[in-house]
Specification:
225 residues; alpha/beta; Arc Repressor Mutant, subunit A; 5 strands; Rossmann fold; 12% strand
Length: 225
């Protein structure tokens, strides 16, 4: 996706100029990363993406006119979109979960150490997710109050979609739901990393999803992890 032919191109979207300046300083000193532009509101994102062609967008959630959730949904529904990492001050925010369902590849707390920010950007640019199993559980528990009486449309949909998978595809999907990286899945399921990547691509096509985080959330919806 990026990095293979040059540095990872990053667009910073935040309404706080101090946050943008701090992130630009952090990323400007990191090898293989380059900040190609900034935006102060979600409304500026489409033009900024068109102008700068970023590989990764660091997207603030709370902005005054168009918030990061709306901007993420619009961006990820466009052809060949960049990856999105949402920025938030809270680690259990229902808006973060909505952004992940919309296609964000992960999220960063605004007080994340600089080295971890750089690592997260590199991961999502390479097609991985910036979302730990602990964080996934926090988010799921934050918006889930436990089983509700009667049918659960989201769970039923998830189970129906996952039922169409082969046993091996289901194994990979569950591993994604556990927050495993490609290398970890490779070791656990005794397949090459290239084969894992092929399975992930097949899952995205078969489930009509646009990244591995959405697969993980589908697995959580089905109650498999």
């Amino acid at each position: 996706m990026s990095g293979d032919t040059g540095p990872v191109r990053v667009l910073i979207v935040d309404d706080d100029p101090l946050v943008r300046a701090g992130l630009s300083m952090i990323l400007g000193g990191a090898p293989e990363l380059v900040v190609v532009g900034e935006a102060a509101d979600g409304s500026e994102v489409p033009a900024a993406v068109a102008a700068h062609a970023p590989h990764v967008v660091l997207m603030d959630i709370r902005m005054p006119r168009v918030d990061g959730l709306t901007a993420t949904e619009a961006l990820r529904s466009s052809p060949a979109p960049p990856e999105v990492l949402v920025l938030t001050t809270f680690d259990a925010d229902d808006q973060v979960l909505r952004a992940l369902r919309a296609g964000a590849a992960g999220f960063l707390l605004k007080d994340t150490p600089p080295a971890e920010i750089v690592q997260a950007i590199r991961r999502v640019a390479a097609g991985e997710a910036a979302l730990s199993p602990t964080v996934t559980r926090q988010l799921i528990s934050h918006v889930t109050t436990g089983p509700t009486p009667g049918p659960d449309p989201r769970r039923e949909r998830a189970l129906r979609l996952l039922a169409a998978l082969t046993e091996r595809e289901r194994d990979v999907a569950v591993a994604l739901g556990q927050g495993r990286t490609n290398a970890e899945i490779s070791a656990e399921l005794f397949m090459s990393v290239a084969t894992v990547k092929a399975y992930v691509s097949r899952l995205l096509t078969k489930l009509d999803l646009n990244n591995r985080v959405q697969v993980a959330l589908l697995v959580h919806d089905a109650g498999l992890v």
